Amino acid sequence: ETVRQTVYTHLTGTAQRAAQCLRAVGLENAGYLAGLLHDMGKYTQVFQQYLEAGDQAKRGSVIHTFQGCRYIMEAFHGADAECAELIAFAVGAHHGLFDCVDSAQRIGLQYRTEKQDISYRSAAAAFLDEVPSTRVEALFFQASEELGQVLKRLDATYAEDRDYAFESGLLARLLLSAVIEGDRYDTAAFMRGAYPLAWPEDMTFVWAERLEHLETRLEQLPRHTPVENARHTISELCRAFASRQPGIYRLNVPTGGGKTLSSLRYALAHAMCFHKRRLIFTSPLLSILEQNARVIRDYIGDDRLILEHHSNVVQTELAQEELDRRELLEQSWDAPLIITTLVQLLNTMFDEKTTAIRRFQALCNSVIVIDEVQTVPTKLLTLFNLTIQFLSEQCGATIVLCSATQPELAGAAHPLRRTPEDIVPKSESLWAPFRRTELFRLSDRRLDQLPEWICGQMDTAESLLVVCNKKSEAAYLLENTRSAQYQSFHLSAAMCVQHRRAVLAALQEALSHHGKVLCISTQVIEAGVDISFGMVVRLTAGMDSIVQ
After folding, report:
1. Nearest to 524 by CA among 453, 468, 455
2. How far, in whole angstroms, is CA 350 from its chain's centroid?
3. Which terminus of the chain has fewer Cβ atoms in its 10 Å neighbourhood, N or C?
4. Chain-centroid distance, C-alpha 457
5. CA nearest to 34, candidates 22, 48, 46, 51
6. Do the Cβ atoms of 282 and 342 come closer than 8 Å?
7. How far separated are the first and last CA of the chain, in Å rounded?
8. Residue 281: which H helix or E strand, with range?
């Protein structure tokens, strides 16, 4: 027997989930109302016939998002235009974004409120039979109050109209994100019985337990060398800073300073102090991500908390139920600790696909640790600044910008309103143990002159790393520097993951035996790969690459 879900059950299920997503940021009623109205058009006879047609019906051929748009605009635009438009946008865009004003000068909301032949009257009547208009009215004025508070803060903060418009656009994205999450979550639960693991609303106890586990492990780390002692001091400073109010901060420590564990310690302690819902760790390159993920898993000590979301995660042995749950987690980021790529984070912030927008609500009330933040593309710095500012000021997120070579965020067209404070203040004595290199500017050489020079260096060097800008350069140098006198290795982003892992493992092994080793690599090795050479040659690049 076919089990059916009523429209009313789906609307209330979506509304409850959307409200839950936005509760921590004070937009619970706005989320609930947008969720309640999102599928009003499914009350029409024509939509029911579309469902009956099954596979014979053309997907998306029956409009069911315009009706809720029109209802909220007709009933409440006069009372609070901004609130009505924000909710109408969240309703109308939950299957795909639309332009508020398109290239033909058409106004998106006006088009949706004036569209004929969508059975609007019958849909609204059927909806109001199940949801009294007094209930909708009460919800609207509660939503108006909530959204009004955010808009008032934005108005007081942003003198430039462009900045205010962008930030209010992020507010629209947040509301839409909660509706998409509510809609897809409720549908997955009904269709497949797919629910993520239920975690408590207040995660304080969970964070405290994991922090205790982490600190027990940290106590066991050696403190024999100046570098080990400096790492311990950096970790202690991060722990102490965690009780500071949420905001945007920098973790600017030298390469080799134990950034991964120190940032994890800060994130857990800060989440415990301020009742944060989620920890999100991002890295720009999969090689760094996998390395960091192994460390985080090891020191967290509970894999149930962790979702790794990137292209290298392949789950072939899971049962269908587990695969369904994993897919749901990747789409919603409804896990306590997310390890993902910088690209996935930037997509969540800016991409137009509903799958990316859906995750935006998961950034609320979280601690977001962005490793190697200097890799955010320069052309995105203005959008990046305005977005992390919105997440910090309106969504209760704490953002940690990690790097040994911090980007010049102040140089963007729209800099952060306040310069982020350093979690670990720069200290000559603390930094001194990490000064293990001397930089020399070599005289210019053509590529075809390098093999002979590299082979000459290998006469005296135990281990040498050559970092190239292009794959073709690395391939050429590898081919022309092979010798029976030393082992040669090659690393490139063009390698598949398994191949790169195998080469790195073999390289580490060779270096540990103190034999002569030459490695020719592309930039894949440059940011955060944990490995040491006696000498490094870097083909001409920016200073950030050289420091890395």
Report:
1. 468
2. 11
3. N
4. 43
5. 22
6. yes
7. 62
8. strand 278-283
Retrieve residue 348's tokens. 């969540």
Pair 92, 66: CB distance under 8 Å? yes
The pLDDT of residue 314 is 46
How many angstroms separate the CA atoms of 162 and 158, rounded? 9
With CA atoms as reference, report the closest residue to 235 among 423, 50, 74, 100.
Answer: 423
Could you tell me the two tokens for 207?
Answer: 């964070």
- The per-residue pLDDT for range 187-197, each reduced to its tens digit, is 888 877 766 67
Q: Please give the Cα distance from 211 to 235 (Å, whole number).
A: 13
DSSP state of 434: G
pLDDT digits (tens, 9 = 90+) for 105-140: 777 777 777 777 777 788 888 889 999 999 999 999
Q: How many residues are listed for the chain in this entry?
A: 548
**pLDDT, position 316:** 46
Which pair of structure tokens corresponds to residue 512?
């540990």
Q: State the DSSP string of 393-426.
A: HHS--EEEEE-SS---GGGSSS--SSPPEESS--
Q: Please report the pLDDT score of residue 208 as a whole number.
A: 97
Distance, CA of 374 to CA of 214 (rounded, Å): 28
Query: What is the C-alpha separation between 307 and 304, in angstroms, rounded?
Result: 8
Give the C-alpha separation, 519 to 474, whole Å.
10
Residue 413 is encoded by which pair of tokens? 């067209």
Helix (DSSP H) and strand (DSSP E) numbers for the chain: 22, 11
Helix/strand/coil for 367: strand
H-only helix segments in 412-496:
428-431, 450-457, 471-479
Residue 25 in contact with residue 391, Cβ under 8 Å? no
Q: How far is 397 from 384, CA to CA, in rounded Å? A: 14
Centre a 10 Å sphere on the Cβ of residue 79 and count the other Cβ atoms it contains.
Answer: 12
Strands 366-370 and 306-309: unpaired
Q: Residue ranges of the chain with pLDDT lower than 50? A: 314-318
Long-range contacts of 256-260, Cβ-Cβ distance < 8 Å, separation of 24 or more: 256/227, 256/434, 256/436, 257/230, 257/231, 257/404, 257/434, 258/231, 258/234, 259/371, 259/402, 259/404, 260/292, 260/295, 260/296, 260/371
